[in-house]
Here is the input.
Amino acid sequence: MYYIYMLRCTDNSIYTGITTNVEHRMKEHFSKKNCAKYTRSHTAEKLECVWETKDKVLASKLEYQIKKLTKPQKEKLIRENNLEEMFLDKININQYKLHKSIEEQMQEWINQFDGNVSLYASDEYHNEIRINENTVVEAASCIKLFILIEYYRQILKQEKAREDILTYDYSNDYVEDGSGLIQFLEDGLQLSSKNMAILMMIISDNIATNKMIEYLGFEQINHTIKELGYKNTELIAKKLDFNQYKTLGKTTAYEYAMLYKQLLKKEILTADICEEIIEILSHQKKNEMLVRKLPIEDKTIIKYIASKSGGLGSEEVEITNCRNDGGIVATKFGDYIVSIFINHFSDYHFYQDNPTILLGAEMNKILFENFKKNEGKLK
Here is the structure.
């Protein structure tokens, strides 16, 4: 894809150019490194507009026509994006369309929504998408990934073993209105610690989570979170019971994504453990936000999505309405990391077409389509 752009300089002059990578070319213009001769002597100030087309010949044609315009005509083109009016008899304007950045595309969806959105995404080439990524938000069940990390840390230190048996005691462990399966099973159920951890992750079982918190130690989980450098992340609920706690934990879109990045790059624990964790996460069942708009059935395109979601919502309990998800999207083009946190919206109900799920799905679709178009790069 080729992009034709108009760039305003500090002296209010307008430079027009062509590139195959808008973000990279803007960095060159603004830093004056490898930039055009014009922007070396006229300091670049603002990217005004960008059009895209399929090949360089078409891009060159539009660039030539724009450069022939007078300054007032260029200003009008920037204000009105009126290619048809300007160039109808000179070029085939159907070969061009206004280019919008990923952030602009996402903002159009966010503007239709009544809540708050935080997002962070990155690819292997350090391209990043950031929307309120450092805002501290309710983690909900996304905090369970940090509990899983502590589980494997203790296994690595031989303080715990995958074969350890944990027993469900109805009188002490039962909580109502929690997600998961164990609440419907018989008292005295015994599971290995690994199976308990798997239930915590793939179906977000709250009783399994409580057993893991008790097993690993509340203070130790938070100690490890801080040791890993996650200053804004914390497990707050010692027990997932909404009669006792109105929040489960806190994090940011950026910190949640960074944990997935560490897993993907095998920068935490050991490489084998990272692979074991990713394998568990790839079986998560409550992942509608990330998978809804992607061609997940085609394994030649999407290899796997390894994620952990979380959500809270109630009319009766005073908790923060939120829907969150984050993870690794592994494709034939490469892999990218994404985390999406949506909160303080009005429709707290859990159902397939909740606007938060649709919004998150559209945002991840935008990421995926750009990633595919750019052959493994978000930008």
Remarks:
- The two ends are 12 Å apart (CA to CA).
